[in-house]
Amino acid sequence: MAANEAICQASQEKDSLHIIDLGMEHTLQWPSLMRTLAARNEGPPKLRITGLIDGHNLLELEASLKELAEEASSLGIRLEFNLVSEPVSPLLLTTENLNLREGEALFVNSIMHLHKFVKESRGSLKAILQAIKKLNPTLLTVVEQDANHNGPFFLGRFIESLHYYSAIFDSLEASLPRNSPQRIKMEKVQFSTEICNIIAYEGSNRIERHERADQWRRQLSRAGFQVMGLKCMSQARMMLSVYGIDGYTLATEKGCLLLGWKGRPLMLASAWQVHNLFPS
């Protein structure tokens, strides 16, 4: 929701948008974005979405595109959707490979994906961020786990993971019934895989390297981005109130929107622009 709100605010009065979705795993983000864009006073823009995927969920994504296209048509949005079955890399993130077009407002969207490039040397993340910067997007939206799972020692990662995922599972218990297909999928597919990777793997095989919000701010600032304060606190609070669940907390800190559970940080959302030191 926070990423969509940032995209909508930055795309006002723009009639053609192109969103690059890093590591796309599903299309659940886009229906709500399209509904908001369709309600603009100036009318809906043309929307192009390029999903960069690793290939493992290609069939599942293709199956959902028909429903997305039908919804776009009902909203009066001209939607073009492209899937690129190739891992995200600096070589892929170029104007030519992404087929960027003049006149389009470019957005790069990363939902829990950038942490996969955090290595011991941090060179991989730096290279990805530099490639994104060269694309000169209108906005880079980042949603990440707000946790410290990148420590060098097993015991520290184990204890941090224990507290973090205990809060995650506690929040799911309060939010979704135990037989909910959505909850079962998150627990068995997403979270179990993350926990296993954090605890059981080392070196280049350990890709679930979640970091805290302050560390993300430092990395993105050093790469030449400046944070743009999110203006969706009231909408986020309203959404939580609709579900009527006590325990979730919301806060803003240095431009980031932070979601927690009973005082334990869970997720962060932020929006970034290329920092131009010498504006024309």
TrEMBL record:
Chain intervals for the UniProt region annotation (SAW): 200-273
User: Keywords assigned by UniProt?
Assistant: Nucleus, Transcription, Transcription regulation
Localization (cell): Nucleus
- Example of a GO cellular component annotation carried by this entry: nucleus
Q: Does the keyword Transcription apply?
A: yes
Specify one Pfam family: GRAS
PROSITE patterns, per database record = GRAS
User: Motif VHIID, which positions?
Assistant: 17-21
Q: What is its main location?
A: nucleus
Note down the stretches annotated as region PFYRE.
Answer: 106-197
Give the PANTHER family listed for this entry.
OSJNBA0084A10.13 PROTEIN-RELATED
Q: Which family does it belong to?
A: Belongs to the GRAS family.
Question: What protein does this entry describe?
Answer: Scarecrow-like 3
